[in-house]
Amino acid sequence: MLTGLLPIGSVVLLKNSTKRLMIIGLCQSESQDGENGKIWDYAGCLYPEGYISADRTFLFDENQIEKIYAVGYQDEEQFAFKSQIDAVREELRNQASEDSE
């Protein structure tokens, strides 16, 4: 059972979707100007096409994933990064919860 964020290169299918996405980014903000916007768990591009353009990049959260087709490459560097990014994501979620109270 995987916990935390999936690694770059993972291929997933989102709920209510028919086209798979490959994860190309983690903890992505929808803000274009650096202002505090929603932080999404993932950025993805169409699979198998790959990155086409910025307007064909999709932001989504872990809870939107219906099925995992492939888990991206993992090594010691990725595991260390995953530990850090999972901690940052948890901190951001806690901060968002406090801000909404």
Brief rundown of the structure:
By secondary structure, the chain is of the alpha+beta class. It has one helix at 76-100; strands spanning 11-14, 20-29, 39-46, 57-60, 65-70. The chain has one domain.
Describe this structure in words.
- The protein starts with 10 loop residues before the first strand and ends with a helix.
- 25% of the residues lie in helices and 32% in strands.
- It has one helix at residues 76-100; strands at 11-14, 20-29, 39-46, 57-60, 65-70.
- The chain has one domain (11-100).
- The mean pLDDT is 89.
- The chain has 101 residues and is an alpha+beta fold.
- A hairpin with a 5-residue loop joins strand 1 (11-14) and strand 2.
- It is globular and about 40 Å long.
- Strands 4-3-2-1-5 form a five-stranded antiparallel beta sheet.
